[in-house]
Design a protein that fits this description.
Strand order of the largest sheet: 2-1-5-4-3
Mean pLDDT: 85
Largest sheet: 5 strands, antiparallel
Number of strands: 15
Order of helices and strands: HEEHHHEEEHEEEHHEEEEEEHHHEH
Radius of gyration: 40 Å
Number of helices: 11
Low-confidence stretches: none
């Protein structure tokens, strides 16, 4: 059925009228809410005269502070609303900078409410000038920063707690590290001994270790090693290795047998999906009554060779080729060598933290290396144990942050007699 003309016209007029009515209501809403938007905005608005007196303030800021409009307008200055510290900052920094720039934003201040409480705010101010360029008003917008302040306070608290926890961890690591090293080296008649442990990072316990201790029948044992890894797992292996080496040396002081014993223990305790291993060099010291000095027998399980600095000024490594890592294989090959330490000779044991240190800030092919250490030893020889350790400490200090692994060094020196020094 077709619509009549009157009905069609009525429907057309209704359709056209609806958008017009909505546009009118929207326009009326904007027109009516302009003042309401200022008064009840989600931020505080404030207008002040050039001398600082408050000329206008919105209801939002009044509600925040608990004031009536008549308490502020024409009677108080903006700086009167600030805390003592905020007022000082306003007078010495905020206001002068605003006069120079005409605008300043994002400044954190605190306002004093009518009840004495403090309200943290973020302040932005602009200067309105007249046609002659002279300032007429200062318009200020203030954002409630209580949530932000609470967040910053919690963040600061968390940071302080993290710092305290890190300090506690450093103390724990330092204490644990000390327990893994001998409090003092044994006093061996006829020998001058010295040692040093360089900690690359206080945040983790390293796995380097050394010791020098007496055995039966006028002999002494010594060892120096490096456990794979860092932290608590490495500390556990270090502790086990130290006590196993000392116990094994008492049972059978032969250096190869001592390392074989340690290899059996580590391979048994840490085999499977979580193998643990270390490099170790073990030495047996025996006085040489015929020639003077000491006879040293060394056994190495994958450890860097010892450096021998002779009394005549020469220096060379003591080769121990073929020694395998301790703890990896059930029957590791142990490499041995023997040497006579004559008066004036010095033997230096070290872990690879020294030779693998970076010599420059940039990483890459800048490792210190075995050749450089050999040249270093040749430049030192002849040297005493204490002088050698002092020189190594200075070298490590020169590398700075280039030393990224803990380093242990142990030096053994046979002093010359007065008559020998005079010859």
């Amino acid at each position: 059925m077709c619509e009549t003309g009157d009905a069609a016209d009525s429907k057309h007029q209704t359709g056209d009228q609806r958008p017009a009515d909505e546009a009118a209501r929207f326009s009326d809403l904007l027109e009516d809410s302009a003042e309401d938007l200022y008064e009840h905005a989600p931020c505080g608005y404030l207008s002040t005269l050039p001398d600082g007196r408050i000329a206008k303030v919105n209801a939002t800021l009044l509600d925040w502070l608990g004031y009536e409009r008549g308490d502020l307008v024409g009677r108080m200055a903006f700086s009167d609303l600030l805390t003592v510290g905020g007022r000082l900052y306003h007078e010495t920094h905020f206001a002068p900078l605003l006069r120079m720039q005409g605008e300043i934003s994002g400044v954190a201040l605190e306002l004093k409410a009518a009840d004495g409480t403090r309200l943290p705010v973020m302040v932005t101010s602009t200067v309105k000038t007249g046609s002659d360029g002279q300032p007429l008003l200062i318009r200020t917008t203030l954002f409630d920063a209580r949530d932000r302040r609470a967040y910053e306070t919690e963040l600061l608290r968390a940071r302080h707690e993290a710092d305290r926890e890190r300090d506690r961890l450093k103390l724990l690591n330092t204490t644990l590290q000390k327990t893994l090293l001998p409090p003092a080296l044994a006093n061996v008649p006829g020998l001058d001994v010295a040692a040093h442990y360089h900690i690359a990072s206080v945040d983790e316990v390293g796995g380097d270790f050394y010791d020098l201790f007496p055995l039966a029948a006028g002999t002494w044992g010594m060892f120096l090693g490096d456990v794979c890894g860092k932290g608590a797992p490495a500390a556990a292996i270090t502790s086990l290795a130290r006590y196993t080496l000392r116990a094994a040396a008492v049972y059978n002081p032969d250096p190869a047998a001592v390392l074989a014993n340690l290899n059996t223990v580590l391979n048994h305790e840490y085999s499977g999906t979580d193998p643990r291993f270390c490099t170790v060099i073990f030495g047996l010291l025996t006085p040489d009554t015929d020639r003077g000095g000491f006879r040293v027998t060394l056994a190495s399980g994958g450890h860097p060779p010892a450096l021998l600095m002779r009394a005549d000024g020469t220096a060379d490594y003591l080769p121990t080729p073929g020694g395998q890592l301790i703890g990896v294989l059930p029957d590791a090959h142990i490499s041995t060598t023997s040497v006579h330490l004559a008066p004036g000779d010095t033997l230096l044991l070290h872990t690879d933290g020294l030779t693998e240190a970076h010599t420059t800030v940039a990483s890459g092919d800048d490792r210190y290396g075995d050749d450089a250490l050999l040249d270093f030893g040749r430049s030192l020889a002849p040297s005493t144990a204490s002088d050698t350790i002092d020189a190594v400490r200075a070298l490590l200090a020169a590398f700075g942050t280039g030393v990224d692994d803990d380093t242990a060094v142990l030096a053994i020196h046979v002093p010359r007699t007065l008559s020998e020094e005079q010859q």
